[in-house]
């Protein structure tokens, strides 16, 4: 049976390899090469060495967008790692209608980010529903300029990213919860350990692999935020919501500085790679 | 069963609160979409329900914007992309799960590393490649870069690994070719994983915005997310119409979701465990 397979394995692999090679791996090399040129789609591109990277270091707009992206990461990731655990605990019980609640919590995940962005832009309106709610409950005295005040805008966009991610990560935790052996809880029950103590001493420790997965996924997702910004603020006001990907998009497709944008893309890649490495390392150690 | 009444009530309260948080914005959108032209949508305090619910905004959107065309484009692109993902990923997964051949490790490493590369870095070169291949403003151009992912290949490989080898060997003795074994023996046994992959690729492609935004400039090929964005830019003052367009674009995926909810959530859970 185990004789040479001949060409068969390669034939099976051709379509997948052609697509992933042609649209991921080759472009990756191309992007790194382009970051060393002044490629702009109009004039012949020239090799410029590390010029684009030097320019990046001196570009305040780049630093601003990098700072926004890192702030995004620092705020959004803890929320998306912790809050969905509670959601998963909440829906991990056989109650009447629990599947409907799970589905409702998952709704934002299936909605395209453009639509989500528009919905929230409408919710965030100065005279909108959210301000009405805040004013009528006395939480604020004046309407909040969610998207038009540079001090608020980035946080308002972050809230949308969190809102979208809750259901997604909830499901990952739910999978983790359901893989915890039942007999551990039964044993604890016999010993008279309270529900809360069970959560702290059984559930959370055994959920660690899922927590690590969510930390990796949500931090990589936070690095790539684009659609919410594009729809809600276009990077404004005063560049307050310009993220790294938005910076790359503008440099490449509005200013046509493809070489320069590629250099910023390489920075994004290295940061993403670094994050996955740190996360994997932490995961391995546990 | 002590204190169960209280704890169950508390749990339902918490569930309802979160449900309000996730559903609230959708309901507000729907309410806005149903408000008639004579109703002031900026009035204070805002009216939660439309005074005279009407579908006129939906008709106006469909009349003035090619939303049915966007819908057709979205369905076509998502359908093609899902089919391509299922076929290509499960084809590639077979030799990776079951055959020994030269270069297997190299292919493994290349596939794995492709998962680390963000599309946002690739969008510039992929745009150029697509232009050079003449893929601008075409369905093929929308689908091809998303036609297969390493995630899908690994998901299917994992599924194939769980099938006993004996099944395959007896099929070989009966003289079936590798391709026949793949189709007649293996694929029927991995339907749950195929469903997972279908759901994942469907959500991804249906909501995709960045790639179509870059590769299309002919609105004739716009998918729903681009159509809604265009609507918002055209009628930025009239939120009734924007809301109607947004609701219109959510309805199809909502219908799919309601009818195959179990694949979405169970599929996502399966993907989470194995991914």
Automatic annotation (TrEMBL), chain A:
Q: What is its main location?
A: membrane
By its UniProt entry, which SUPFAM superfamilies does this protein fall under?
MalF N-terminal region-like (SSF160964), MetI-like (SSF161098)
Location of the protein in the cell: Cell membrane
Entry-linked InterPro entries: ABC_transporter_permease, MetI-like, MetI-like_sf
Keywords, ordered alphabetically: Cell membrane, Membrane, Transmembrane, Transmembrane helix, Transport
Spans through the membrane: 7-29, 70-91, 103-123, 153-175, 206-226, 260-283
PANTHER family per record: ABC TRANSPORTER PERMEASE PROTEIN (PTHR30193), LACTOSE TRANSPORT SYSTEM PERMEASE PROTEIN LACF (PTHR30193:SF44)
Indicate the family of this protein: Belongs to the binding-protein-dependent transport system permease family.
| Descriptive protein name | Sugar ABC transporter permease
Which organism is this protein's natural source?
Microbulbifer flavimaris
UniProtKB/TrEMBL annotation, chain B:
Q: Which SUPFAM superfamilies does the entry link to?
A: MetI-like
Keyword annotations: Cell membrane, Membrane, Transmembrane, Transmembrane helix, Transport
Q: Gene3D superfamilies, alphabetically?
A: MetI-like (1.10.3720.10)
Q: Where are the transmembrane segments?
A: 12-30, 75-94, 106-127, 139-160, 181-206, 239-260
Where it sits in the cell: the answer is: Cell membrane
Q: Does the keyword Membrane apply?
A: yes
Main localisation: membrane
Q: Which InterPro entries does the record match to this protein?
A: MetI-like, MetI-like_sf
> What's the protein's topology in the membrane?
Multi-pass membrane protein
> What family is it from?
Belongs to the binding-protein-dependent transport system permease family.
* Protein name as it appears in the record: Carbohydrate ABC transporter permease
Q: Species name for this entry? A: Microbulbifer flavimaris
